[in-house]
Amino acid sequence: TDTSLARITAHGRDFIPDAHVMYGWADVRGMDLPLSHYKKYVDLLGGEGTRSSYGVFLSSFDSPLLRVLNVKFILTAQTNTVPAATLLLPAQGPGEVSLWQFDHVQPRSFMVHDAIVAKTDAEACALLTNEPTRVYDRVVLCETRQPPALLATVGKGEETFSKVILETYEDNKARWRVDTQKDGYLVTTDCF
User: Is 192 helix (H, G, I), strand (E, B) or coil?
Assistant: First the structure.
């Protein structure tokens, strides 16, 4: 049993969104309370994802916009391989699912030291769509004014080190310990 803080997802209807609750898993596709900003974000993932009243059905796992959500495991009945993932448990027969694990799992919380301001949600969506790999090193802030300048404590071009440790993660309570050499933004990929 894997006890690390990570999420699961599935291909299409191979595992119904919200069924994860019965297993104690966190699935990026199913939510009891679908928030409008999260719906907009999921629409940016690409592939042939479709929404229902209780979740999202994904057909692609290639997007950095999905990978940044701390997805570690993929359930699929498809016979083809999952990009950048290792097969952990093959399907036992027709109609059964295989369990895959991404080779690199983005932490649930991490630091970034760059930001860009979008004045509207549409502008933010365009920034994410046009440069999806930037989700690992830049936040998009929906603001009407420039955010405060970040103070640099390391020289330009020097390597920055940031360590984020999630100390507490409970209902309505989370606490992190952050060790960083430079001002930045703590990103935590919860949808609430």
Answer: coil
CA distance 46 to 67: 12
Nearest to 143 by CA among 125, 116, 183: 116
Give first-to-last CA distance, the chain, whole Å: 26
Query: Is pLDDT at 162 greater than 90 in this prediction?
Result: no
Contact 187, 111 (CB under 8 A): yes
CA distance 80 to 117: 39
Whole-number Å distance between alpha carbons of 70 and 76: 18
Element (H, E) at 86: strand 85-89
pLDDT at 1: 44
Nearest to 78 by CA among 56, 100, 55: 100
| Closest-CA residue to 67 (of 44, 87, 50, 90) | 44
**Residue 154's pLDDT band (cuts 50, 70, 90):** low
Distance CA 16, CA 12 (A): 8
- Considering the entire predicted model, what is its pTM? 0.81
Report how far residue 74's alpha carbon sits from residue 80's, in angstroms, rounded to the nearest whole number: 13
